[in-house]
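Hi R.,

Here's the input for the zinc ion complex you asked about:
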Amino acid sequence: MYIDPHVHMVSRTTDDYQRMALAGCVAITEPAFWAGYDRSCAQGFVDYFGQLTDSEPKRAAQFGICHHTWLCINPKESEDIGLAREVLAEIPKFLDRRNVLGIGEIGLNKNSRNELVVLEEHIALAKSRNLLILVHTPHLEDKMKGTRIIMDAIVSHGVDPGRVLIDHVEEHTVRAVLDRGFWAGMTLYPDTKCTPQRATDIFEMHGTDRLWINSAADWGISDPLAVPKCREEMRARGHLEQTIRKVSFDNPKQFLSQSPNFRVV
Amino acid sequence: MSIPLTSNQVVDRYFLEHRAKALDIAAFLDRFDRAATAEGVATSATTTDVRVGALAAALDLVRDGQPDRARRMLELWSDHSVDPIASAHTKGAIGAVPLNARDRT
Ligand SMILES: [Zn+2]
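And here is the predicted structure with zinc ion in place:
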């Protein structure tokens, strides 16, 4: 039994749900993200929020998987502040839907000033509604710098780090994220993020408290079964079943249960 | 939480996988050099391509005998500046920054 706390099912086929259920997936959370192209107007996001809060939970339920979501305009589309503010104005209309956990995946992409402005407005919205936050950290060479700027912005808004998950951490960012009291996610994604081997190394070096794994499977070359594959890697090394369960079920359940909308049955 | 494997078990389990990955790096540099030679431009030893230079520097780090190589390699390839950039002109990241200008703003 496991939870995949970051997966973009709108980009996956229904047989992926079937395979995830067969592998033991009981709950997922799906952050709003970039579709691979820029939406032309705020209405495009409104349609997407409808998909995340209505269509997708029904598709997941067919396989006994509890579907949850996070809403935002993602950092890749945040350079246009005017559009971002139009989308931000639409988000409160969806916050009462029963599968919404909070605001995400917000953060930075290229660490630009406009991205930071839009990030701070999302943080303010989450703070005013007492919502959980899921953070996307930048890719590759931009990750270390962006992770620092994001953590500073969240702390400066007075948000409790225990209600924020900083995702896509790797060897050079995990320690700082955990030391500042945030939760951290390791993403198992080909080429640009962690492998199951490196994620397991990071557990061995940094412990299992406030740390989880996810697939972030999306429209790119990615793997909706990445979490069970990492569980197998840990098992093959001889890690205890309770440790494997902690990082792939107990930890996500503990963090996500801070939202009254999270459920696993 | 420590690693449950012995050092011998680490080698038994992972050697072939990482032998193949090391071979891939060698073949990548050979491929780059064959293409560069055919074009008449700088090969991997002298290229100004930031990514190839970053990979070569990382290989030095792999062999330095010090711990935390993965963390240090990621730091080597990271932008070390602290201020937000004026605006995002692209969505993508290339995977490395110039080794002589890692503090670019
Ligand atoms: Zn994502």
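One thing worth noting: Residues A 6, 8, 31, 33, 105, 216 surround zinc ion (CB under 6 Å).

Cheers,
M.
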